[in-house]
Structures are given as structure tokens and as C-alpha cells.
Amino acid sequence: MGPLPAAARVYIACAVLAAAVCAVPLARSAPGVPWGALVLLAGVCAVCERLPRRPLTLPVLLAAAVLLPPAAAGLAAVPGGLAGRVGRRPVAVRRLWHAAQLSLATGAASYVYGLGGPRPVTAPAFPRALGPALAAALVLALVLAVLEGGVLVTAEGRSPRTAWRDALPGALVPPLAQGPTGLLVAVVWHSPYGPPAALLVLLPMALSSWVLDRCRRERAAHRATVRALVQAVDLKDAYTRGHSERVGRASVLIARELGMRGERLEALRFAGTLHDVGKIGVPTRVLRKNGPLTPEERRLIELHPEYGHEMVRGIGFLDEARDAILHHHERLDGTGYPYGLTGHQIPEAARVVAVADAFDAMTSTRSYSRARPVPAALAELHRCAGSHFDPRMVAALTRALDRYGWHPAVPASRNVPLDQCPARTAAGGGA
């Protein structure tokens, strides 16, 4: 990062000066300041700021806002800001800015909590203190968001409307969840069990945050795996570029109409996106052949579902998607491949992907044919329902498209022989 603009330097300097001015009352009332609680909370805040994604910082700051007067609460946030993780330069300026930001927000939250006068932080008083604690949490989050938006305006040149429009909506959600936790920490702090028990209240939140972070990382790894496989198919057979993603999207539309949710919906997305991954195992000369395919070459093409199934057999998270990859070219009347399954012998996920695949093949513009209008493609699917496609899946796709519509596909980038066309028959689906 280059030198900060002058406006950003002035903005940060003003924030630091404001935080320092807010701490002045501590010097006047030093004997009455709960220094022990201040130091302990400051240390805990510093530790929390070093954790990945900082899941406990907000509840600790809220506990400080409830337990300490505004000046002391603001000071308790400073070590956390100075100790926080910084990924870009200038590091010192960013740490100083973050410390001032946390200090001002926590001090403001403490002030709002105390507006109605002193409130005993005890278990019986918990219901009456919950409203002020939530208000303090919202103020803390809003001050953080407003200050952050100011930095985006002065340092990155964003418009105020864009900076605060992006920051404010997301800032309102965490306080509603973590505000009661901060109050609970404060209540237990003043209980006979003392500060150690109060800090234990944060342990379940830390564990749940760790689990959620692991889940997010795992899901990101799953998506990266799927993207890598799709890119490998695109490199080998460029004319299908974009087809896989669209089939995944259409599969999700059908699955939602059928009432599928959660992990099963994600499995259908993966199934649609990876349905042609087995093309990696088909010789490139066959995929890119200019001219009609021989019977032997046709048999090689029809092996791609089995190749795909073998490729993803060991990828545990794909689950139901593996069956869809293997059977998405089966037909209800038994004329499909690779095994000629009929009716409900074909897994439900495969029947979903088969309809999505055929629909996208018919509505995509290729070098060898123009895209059919969506109504014409749906009419063809309905004509073949019961013989090639499951009527439930066709009806579900029709309902979904009535509700959400469908965006036209981008034309393919190279010529492909008609003999290799994924929609060479009216409802032939992908090759």
C-alpha cells in the first residue's frame, strides 16, 4: 500500500485524538476506577483480537461497556486494537487506527448503557438490563461501521453512500446475537464465582465459532475442488464452457421446487456442475473430431459417465452427486446409458440432472445451432416426459422458470461437428 492520502491521515489523527480525549476522565477519578477489571478485560480483548476472525472481541467489548464507565471501557479496548492482526501496510498506522476505532465504539456503548442511571449487574436484574445492553451493542456496532466507512471514503476514495451502504446493514446482525452474551459475562463477573467463571462463558462461543470457521473452510475447499474439476473439463472440451455451471444452476431450481434443502440441495448443485467431468477420460481426438463419429468413437463418448463416477468415487462430500454423474444419461424407457436403467431404478438426483442438462443444451447457442426459446425447449421436454425424462422433474423446472426466468447462454467459442452435439436430437441432453 502506498502513502495514505492527506485526508485519511487527518481522519485517523482525529480519531486517535478523540479516543485520547475520551480517556481524560480516568486521570480525574483515578481512585474510583476499577483498574483490576479494566486490566483483565484489556488483556482478554488483546487475546481475542489475535484469534482468527476475532469471534469473541464483540462480547468482550460489550462486557467492558456494561462493567466499566465510558472512559475505562474505551481504554480497555485499546490493547486489543494494538494487538490485532494486520494484513497490509502501514502496520503501525493500521494498529493505531483500529485501537482508536475500538476505543471510541466501546466508550459510546458504555455511555448508552448507563443513560438510565446505574444498573446492578446481577442475575435478578438481567431481564431489565437486556434492553440497554442490546442498545449498547447496536451503538458499538454502528460506531464501528460509521468509522470504518469514513476510512473507506478518505483512504480509498469511495463515495460516502457506497461506503456506508455496504458497511451498515451487516453491522446490525452480530450485536443482536452477541449482545446478551456480553451482558451474561458481566452478570457472571459480579457473581460469587467471579471473573474466571465469566470468562468460561465465552468458551462455548469460541468453540462454536471454531466449528463454524472449519465448516466455512471445508465448504470453500469443496467449491475449489469442484471448480478445479470443471476447469479441467473446459480445457479439454472448450465448447461446453459455461454449460456445467448452468446445469448446476438449473438442477438447483428443480431441486428447490421438489422441496430439497440443505446438504441435499448442495449435492444437486455439485451433481449438475460435475455431470460431464468424465470427459477428461475421453481421448481429446474424439472430443474434438471434425466430422461424424464412428461407432467405436461413439462408445468412447458414452463411457464418460463411468469415467466421471470413478474420478469422484473417493470424494466423500459429493455423496448423492456420484450417482447423478453416473446415471444422468439414463432414460425412463431404458434406452439410455451406461446401464439402460428404467423408471425409478434411475436415482432421483440423476433424473434431476438429466432434465437440467437437456434444457441447457437446447437453450444454449452453439456454432452449429441457434438456441431454442425457453418455451420451445420446455415443450420438447414435456413431449419427452415419461419416455426420456421424469415428468415430475420437467414440471418442477417449468414452475421454477415461471418464477425465476432463465438467462440465455453465451455462444460457444469454436465449431463443433453436429455429430458431437449434446442436443443433436430434440431432447438428447448433453453428450
Short description:
By secondary structure, the protein is an all-alpha fold. 65% of the residues lie in helices and 0% in strands.
Q: Can you tell me about this structure?
A:
This protein has 20 helices and no strands. The protein is mostly helical and 431 residues long. Helix content is 65%, strand content 0%. Helix 1 (6-22) crosses helix 6 (91-113), helix 4 (57-67) packs across helix 6 (91-113) and helix 7 (126-156) packs across helix 9 (173-189). It has two domains: 6-200, no CATH class; 218-420, Hypothetical protein af1432 (Orthogonal Bundle). It holds the Pfam family HD_5. This is Metal-dependent phosphohydrolase.
Annotate the secondary structure layout.
Layout: H1 6-22, H2 25-28, H3 35-50, H4 57-67, H5 70-83, H6 91-113, H7 126-156, H8 160-171, H9 173-189, H10 194-200, H11 202-236, H12 243-257, H13 262-273, H14 284-287, H15 295-301, H16 304-312, H17 321-327, H18 348-363, H19 374-384, H20 391-404
Please name the defining characteristics of this protein.
single chain, 431 residues, mainly alpha, Hypothetical protein af1432, 20 helices, transmembrane helix, transmembrane, HD/PDEase_dom
CATH architecture of the largest domain: Orthogonal Bundle
Write down the overall geometry: elongated
Mean pLDDT, rounded to whole units?
83
Radius of gyration: 30 Å
For the secondary structure, the number of strands is 0
